[in-house]
Amino acid sequence: MSTDEEQIRALVEMWLSATAAGDVDTVLDLMAADAMFMSAGQPPMVGREAFARGLTKLLTDNVIRSVSDIQEIVVCGDLAYVRTKLAVTITSKHGKTPMLRNGDTMSILRREADGRWRLSRDANMLVVVA
Length: 130
What we know:
Layout: H1 3-21, H2 24-29, E1 31-39, E2 45-46, H3 48-61, E3 62-76, E4 79-92, E5 99-111, E6 117-124, E7 127-128
Parallel strand pairs: 1-6
Antiparallel strand pairs: 1-2, 3-4, 4-5, 5-6, 5-7
């Protein structure tokens, strides 16, 4: 496994653990300033600030736990993509029934000037599990 692949796997794990811990600042540090998040039926969410508002609002009343099964990592110079199977459980802090979502994701990462990989674009096809 290459150093780049190891760093990208570490980024994915840090993203999941920081989200579960409610550590929005760490999650934001893992993404490019111009990051874009795409999901079906919604306009793209663009930029750290937009993501921070959405995640902070979600974490106010919920805890998010995720499991990512990395299917593929391809590195080409300073760009890489990661394809995963993702399962997300959103549990209300107020006793409501947990929401389960799972599906495929495709993320594009960029090595930035400081040498760190950061998420640049993300598309997920998660669906609610009945």
